[in-house]
Amino acid sequence: MPPCNCHPNDPQDYQVTNAGRRRFMLDSLAAAGGLAAAMSMPNMMRQAMADDGTVRIGYLPITDATPLLVAHALGYFEEEGLKVAEPELIRGWSPLVEGFTRGRFNLVHLLNPIPVWMRYNNNFPVKIMAWAHINGSAVLVSGQSGAQEFADLGGKQIAVPYWYSIHNTLLQMALRNAGLEPVIQDQTAPLADNQVNLMILPPADMPPALAAGRIDGFTVAEPFNAAGELLAGGKLLRFTGDIWQNHPCCVVCMNENQVEANPEWTQKTLNALVRASIYAQQNKVETAEMLSRDGRGYLPMPAEVVIRAMSHYDVDDYASPRAIRHSEWGSGRIDFAPFPYASATRQLVSAMNDTLVGGDTTFLNGLDPNFVAEDLVDSRFVRRAMEQYPEAHLPNTPEAQRWEREERIEL
């Protein structure tokens, strides 16, 4: 497939009107209904990948899925000699996980902690094969809240996309650092001034809930932070990539049994994804337009929202609240660097023990971060692909940090 014939635009040129806000709300409702219907269809695609070698992608409508979608849009899978089905948009993490575990999909992106839960709580043979992206998330609050710091969130209702998410983990780290207590309770229950109530909402539901005053803020992946800014009266409190430098958010996952049974297929798939990561990193505006509903329609958002989500990261524009505090890190609002550093997995597993979630967490007891970094992640294929395409590393990455690094978290 040829590349999208798109024309870059400056995100600041766009003006979002009340009509645009209304259209966004209607789009969200329509997407919810359509996706709910899709999820209720009989599971007719439970054939394993080994049956015909077709790449079957399941994804949420967020920029975390970018490499999978770009590889499909630009024909990179076909150039590797693979067959690929049309990617299937899923509305929530639970149905995406279910579709993956049942074999409906053989290539998915999942929030980084989800595979930890799947493998060590549910004994499912999931493997992290690469990082889908780095950074690309934020904490957003109602513009009427007046919040300038995490300490201002006491007594507030904040939504997270999933208990097992980097968003929930980093949010709670920041809240505790500010002297606040994360809790999980009914929204109607009273909150102490130092408590913050957390709840799960699908990403597409967050901006409408904020606009309607049902929540005070949310933390999620793009483009829903940009949508919250442009269409729901929200303000960015902090970019998560400004807290944990170049942190992974979503990861590319496969079934371990299929990886071992089909190493050639796996390598070709990772080759395509690495090439897609390079394209996305080097062409963020064009990628945003291509993914948007004004382009190929992978994401049900207008181009101006997706462009902002992928390219707008200006210190002066985010001075109040001060959402960017480490501009010297050189991070983008979202970046694409697919190598899954073991140090980040170890850091995440350690942090999960301190993260409040709903449900049983006994599987975390005694879970060794070093063991998880070796057992859960299979970096063989992505490393081979990146050795073939070294530009997949972030620009100016020192040679000594191409395969190992130290994690940096500053709350």
From TrEMBL:
Pfam families: NMT1_2. Residues 401-411 have a biased composition (Basic and acidic residues). Its main location: membrane. It is found in: Endomembrane system. InterPro entries: NrtA/CpmA_ABC-bd_dom, TAT_signal. Keywords: Cell inner membrane, Cell membrane, Membrane, Transport. Residues 392-411 are annotated as: Disordered. The keyword Cell membrane applies. PROSITE patterns: TAT. The keyword Coiled coil does not apply. Belongs to the CmpA/NrtA family. PANTHER family: ALIPHATIC SULFONATES-BINDING PROTEIN-RELATED, BLL4572 PROTEIN. This is ABC transporter substrate-binding protein.
